[in-house]
Specification:
mainly alpha, 2 domains, 10 helices, about 0% strand
């Protein structure tokens, strides 16, 4: 089957990419179901899609992206609004699938679609519930090691019997150990320094999952790249929050002191709320898998070679 996909892609690249985009939109529709139901411990198979009022949604009103646009985001039964997240997840999944198909060989791209699906589900569930289900993190680790053994090309190896399969599986296992171990010790040190949990256990397992599919280099980049992305995104919010806090404090000088203190406390809590780290890890993992891996691997290799050459001089 993969040989057929390779042939179609080589002969009709535009057609193949469009088909992958459509497939990605369909998968995105299913991911919406997973994102909503898995944290509630509900089946992702039954019952079928239904409106908030309980009415079943007809299949022709459940076409990914298209139906939401044609219905203008409203249900046909009770005219309630559907969240814009539904077409966003469908379009995001479709776009990422198509891009993965464009930058990777068919085998790696096909495996990558599963990897990307896990990342998308974990991201939106973490945003909603501040958790990353074990089926995506631990399950992803196990699946990543197994797929690495079966398809060594995932880690850039040529299929050459049992030796290459074992080598590929070892790369995946090292990615799990280095990724999860790195995050674990950073979390331990962070808790010692800041006197409060710096990172959840879900993040530790999640980086291990990333390492199973991307090797230890991808896990390291996800960790530090995710921290950089988080800093870039959160720093403006913190600055704005402090400005708003200061202005509000100045404008409430003439308000009753008790009410003012309560208002300031609520504002401080709002800007000191916990932020899920999983989405930032996922974004960095996406960047690595979708084309930045060569630059990262080269940089880490050069850094390793430089360190090894410097060790004899130190001794």
């Amino acid at each position: 089957m993969l040989e057929t996909l390779s042939y179609i892609n080589s002969q009709f690249p535009v057609f193949a990419t469009v088909m992958v985009f459509i497939f990605g939109a369909i998968v995105g529709s299913f991911l919406n179901v997973c994102i909503y139901r898995i944290p509630k411990d509900l089946s992702v198979v039954r019952p079928g899609s239904s409106c908030a009022c309980g009415s079943a949604i007809a299949w022709y009103h459940n076409i990914p992206i298209v139906s939401w646009c044609l219905l203008r985001g409203r249900s046909t039964c009770c005219r309630e609004w559907f969240s814009i997240r539904y077409p966003v997840v469908e379009f995001l999944t479709a776009s990422l699938f198509a891009y993965a198909w464009w930058v990777h060989p068919p085998i790696v791209a096909t495996i990558g679609m599963l990897y990307l699906s896990f990342l998308i589900c974990s991201t939106f569930i973490d945003l909603d519930h501040m958790i990353i289900p074990d089926r995506f993190s631990i399950g992803g680790m196990i699946l990543g090691v197994l797929i690495s053994f079966l398809f060594p090309s995932l880690h850039g190896l040529q299929p050459a019997g049992l030796a290459s399969s074992m080598h590929s599986a070892l790369i995946a296992i090292s990615g799990v150990l280095v990724g999860s171990g790195l995050v674990y010790w950073i979390a331990v040190l962070g808790e010692v320094v800041f006197r409060k949990p710096a990172m959840g256990e879900g993040d530790v397992k999640f980086v291990g999952f990333i390492g199973a599919f991307c090797g230890w280099q991808g896990a390291v980049f996800a960790m530090f790249g995710g921290a950089l992305i988080g800093s870039i995104l959160l720093l403006p919010l913190i600055i704005v929050g402090r400005i708003v806090h200061r202005n509000k404090k100045a404008s409430q000088k003439n308000i009753d002191s008790m009410n003012t203190e309560q208002s300031m406390e609520d504002q401080a809590l709002a800007f000191d709320a916990q932020v899920p780290f999983g989405p930032m890890l996922a974004v960095a993992a996406l960047i690595y898998f979708l084309g930045f891996n060569h630059a990262v691997d080269t940089y880490l290799k050069n850094a390793s070679d430089l360190l090894c050459s410097a060790l004899p001089l130190i001794q």
